[in-house]
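Before a colleague's protein record goes any further, I have to sign it off. Thanks in advance; the entry in question is below:
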Amino acid sequence: MHKATATDLPPGRSNPIMEKIVSLCKRRGFIFQSSEIYGGLASAWDYGPLGAELKRNVKNAWWKAIVHDRDDMVGLDASILMHPKVWEASGHVDSFADLVVECKNCHKRVRLEEFVNISELPRPGAIEIFGQNERRYQELASSLNRYLAEIPDHQHPKCPYCGEQKWTGLRRFNLMFETHAGPQKDTASLVFLRPETAQGIFVNFLNVLDTTRRKLPFGIAQIGKSFRNEITPGNFTFRTREFEQMEIEYFTRPEEAPKYHEQWIEERRRWYLDLGIKKEKLHLRKHGPDELAHYAAACTDIEYNFPFGWSELEGIANRTDFDLKQHSKFSGRDLQYQDAVTQEKFFPYIIEPSGGVDRAALAFLVDSYHEEEVKGETRVVLRLSKALAPIKVAVLPLLKKNNDIVTMAQKIKDDLKKDFVAVYDDTAAIGRLYRRQDEVGTFYCVTVDVQSLTDKQVTVRDRDTMEQERVAVEGLKRYLIERLLY
């Protein structure tokens, strides 16, 4: 088994900012290495108490914006295991592969995209491997093999793992995980862990249509786990073999697809901004003709400027009518949409905004991380939005040995928990408790002191400004509701 490193980066590619994020996540209970007591498993991560809250908040914010706040969307939760024919129809069995080169010394494989970045070859751009046509693959293979043959080994790119400079030619590597269903381990029992959630939506198109009586345009949304046997996972939770997707398949008339494609690009960009991502840290990257999957008419990525560079948060693609046509062909079922008025039948075009829960959570963590000097000391604070902060309110007793103060503080916490995620903490001095809550993004700290016993007021401290205000206990909940829920 591969053991995990701090950020799953090759030797010599450390990143100080990412190391701070990883350290904070471990120290405060956001993210742990999977199977850490056994040395860890590379590219596998467990979300701790606060990480689970953050991740759930990301999904809840997405579901609210996409399903609950719209009249043209419904939800779905499809099975991870599906009939093997699904993946034949979609093209994954034949062509869902990464293009890789292999170091002849340590036998580590490197994705073509990463190899091009460390070589003198012109960068061909991020390549959508699924559905990649044979001509494009042969062009890339010929170009790379010619480059490797024309110059001596000592001028080749160095392997990021061992430093050697000897490489194989370009190869395909299928990314799907195989498993077996039932007691017999044979070809008849072969199934796959889904590499995307989209196909679960496509094969349920008729079921949703029949049960909801939706009219075009409408969408189906889904959040769920997917699995890809990535060659070079890394950068903490950015690229992993097990991950969670937030996907929309939006069905529309073919002639209206370009319009809705543009609308979804802006709507998805706005979602990240509304949840606190800095505008200058986002940009849109339109795919060139040589990058598009064979079924796509257009695709634009929303990219975020991570500490390791600009990388994809979400892709919004116009998938045309490829998917429903393929599943109609392979299943024998007619998946065309029929207009109730004109009786016209056709395959809808599909706009697909597809983002990762884990990537989004990582972006929100990175973007909210802030260091500042306060009274000669470094204050670390996560400036997470109200919707995403794992803890909204922390109730802190100034003197934990004073039973009356402790009782009052715990009573306040119990009352606040009916409306917010609230915690009680008396495990350190008040200054350290404040810093601890700052580090995890808690919006307000409520301090109960000796004076609170007589004047029935508490001190409320704001996370971002550190300003403090005395608030009557009787009006505390209303005070917080006005600032956290509206």
Notes: Confidence is low (pLDDT under 50) at residues 118-132. Residues 381 and 475 are 27 Å apart (CA to CA). Residues 49-68 form the longest helix (20 residues).
